[in-house]
Each structure stands twice: as structure tokens, then as C-alpha cells.
Design brief:
The radius of gyration is 14 Å and the shape is globular. The strands form 2 sheets. Strands 3-2-1-4-7 form a 5-stranded antiparallel beta sheet, with no helix packed on it. Strands 5-6 form a two-stranded antiparallel ribbon. The longest helix has 7 residues. The chain has about 110 residues and is mainly β. It has 2 helices and 7 strands; from the N terminus they run βββαββββα.
Length: about 110
Amino acid sequence: QKAKLTDTTDCVIMEISPDGKSSCVVGLFREGDELPTEVGSVKFTAKNLAAVSLGDVCEVEYLNLTKDERLYQARFKKFRPDKNPFDCLLDGNLRRVNKTVNEKENR
């Protein structure tokens, strides 16, 4: 069985259902920025989508952060009403792509 090691981060809801489907665009703030940087999208159940508002914080599970700063295989875990959106930072603590693994897989 193949094991995938995932991590989680808190993200800010930037856009709700942009494609008419049950997904939201999520983002993270760079230190000092007033607006978050888009890092991906996550799908929601109809119940969760009805409860979401712009600026809400949610916990997102992901495999890694790509070179172009996108969360790879991002999935909604839960809402985080206890978190401040400005604490959701795009920083060095996020799991990055492991170059040596990717180089071996692409051979």
C-alpha cells in the first residue's frame, strides 16, 4: 500500500463557487500584505458551502506546496472560526515539493 504524507494549513476563503460548482478559492497572506495570495481551491459539501463566507478561515489538508506556490491535492478539513485570517501565512513552514523525488519519478 502506498502512503501519502500530508500536512495541514489554515487558509482564507477568497472566492466562493467561482466555477458554479461546490468549490472555493483559498489563499494565504505574505507578511505585510493586505490581500491574500491565491494558493488553490477546495471542494465543499452543499451544507458547508452554504455556511461559508468570504474571509472565513478553514483548515486545508494538502500533499505539498508546488514551485508556483499552489497547494497540491488540497482538501477542506474544517472551519476555523477561532483563527484570524491575517495569521494564515504563506511562509517557510509549508511542506514544499521534494525535488529529488520528482526528478527520479520523471526519468
